[in-house]
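Entry type: protein chain
Record version: 2
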Amino acid sequence: MKRLQAIRTRLRRNQRGFTLIEMLVVISILGILAAVVTLSMVGVTQFVRNNALNTEKTTVQTALDSLATSVGQTPDQLCAANGSANSPGSATANMSAFPNGTNSVYGNNGAFIRQQTTQQKYYCDPQTGIVNAG
């Protein structure tokens, strides 16, 4: 009996590695942590996308206001005179169709909106001169 206990004690001392239970516990904990991180990133991604779209809309509005100031008009006059991109049905992501100061009506005042396309479509309200997402 003592001999058997001595062999068992020696085997435990020389044992290297992990038991199956220990491995399952570690893998379960890692799985739970991965699930928590993944679920939290889904909300962050949508939040960041919304912020980017709001920033883009603000950039388009600032460009329209800058153009209006440059040509001596108010934004609503500019939208009404342009005739394009001024209703939800004609909203565009192509910024060359938006009032941008490079067509013959406004002369060549330079492009106030430098990017050619945007992530979402915009239109200019001719009553208020406010840029809205369409």
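Comment: The longest strand covers residues 117-124.
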